Amino acid sequence: MQDLHSFVDRIHYDGQREYTNRRGNIAYLDGTPLTRPASMPRTQRVIAIVIIGVAILIGLVMVNNFIIAPMRDAAKTEQTIADNLARESSIKTIPDMASLVGLDNESIKATFADAGYQIYDASSANESNEMVLYKIPGDMSIGDATVLYQQGIGALNAEQASRLLNGSWYFAVDRINGTSMVVRYADFSTGDPQVAVQNAIEKEGLSTATMTESGVDDSGNTYSMGTIDVSGTPCTWKVSALSLGDMYSISGLPTNACYVGVRLTVQ
Which residue, 23, 79, 115, 261, is the most exposed by fewest CB within 10 angstroms? Predict the structure, then answer.
């Protein structure tokens, strides 16, 4: 029995006997450590708090970068597009085509200058002999507009395209076989090709009484065409419109926007 007691006395854990309670010849485990309050050492508590804080910070950064910031940027972009489309529309300033019949190219450019339009002359970039002019929106510089035109309208984002297209128009004169003039522009207000065609007819002072044909062609263009006499010079006219999305695939622009063309040809 003495040998058993000596064996028990030699069993230690962290400097304390693990078997300390004896009842007769039986030794029991000491349960005192189990009754102590469970607490983390101060150093470990500080480390845990730091880890939790870093995790929270990383979470906040990720929420901002992947949720809040994109939502904020999208809202800002939508507002910018709305502001761009609230500017003066292109149809307000498109040229009176009939008044240009009989004018040479330099006289036409002088007419636009007298009207106070900013004009970007792209004739030199055109492989044909056409005179090609772009009327720039009133609140844009020619330099800024030129950069966007040279990128190609189809390559612009909705913010850039809405800024450039609303308030601008394309004008060209082809004099190879007679004289043919065309103006093209984006219409963001009517929402319907038929209405866009009718508005262009009225703006140009054309008469539906002289209309010879109308409908939808094989390319999906809604159109009307007819004749007009300009100071004794017989001319034919054609106004057409289609969805702007059929011309340029630019996400973010109004889906009901139209692209309108007016052509006047001297017979």
Answer: 23
* Region of residue 205 (left: phi > 0; alpha: psi -120 to 50; beta: else): left
pLDDT score at 7: 44
The structure tokens listed for 193 are 């090709």
Strand order in the sheet with 180-187: 118-121, 131-136, 169-174, 180-187, 258-266, 233-243, 222-230, 211-216
Assign 133 to helix, strand or coil. Answer: strand
Burial of 205 (0-12, 13-18, 19+ CB in 10 A): exposed
Q: What is the pLDDT of residues 128-139, one digit of tens each?
A: 679 999 999 999
More confident residue, 47 or 242: 242
36 pLDDT tier (thresholds 50, 70, 90):
low
Single-letter residue type at 156? L
260: three-class secondary structure by DSSP:
strand
How far is 242 from 62, CA to CA, in rounded Å? 43
Contact 66, 58 (CB under 8 A): no
Point out which residues pair with 185 in neighbouring strands.
260
**Confidence grade of residue 172 (pLDDT, cut at 50, 70, 90):** very high
Taking the whole predicted model, whether its pTM rises above 0.85 is answered as: no
Residue 171 CB-density burial (10 A; 0-12 exposed, 13-18 middle, 19+ buried): buried
Residue 48 in tokens: 């845990």
With both helix axes pointing from N to C terminus, report the angle between 158-165 and 142-151 in degrees, rounded to the nearest 10. 120
Nearest Cα to Cα of residue 183 among 146, 134, 142, 224: 134
More confident residue, 22 or 239: 239
Residue entry with tokens 């007298």: 114
- With contact defined as beta carbons under 8 Å apart, do 79 and 163 qualify? no
Q: Which residue has the tokens 């307000």?
A: 92
Tokens of 214: 């109308």
Sign of CA dihedral 105, 106, 109, 115: negative
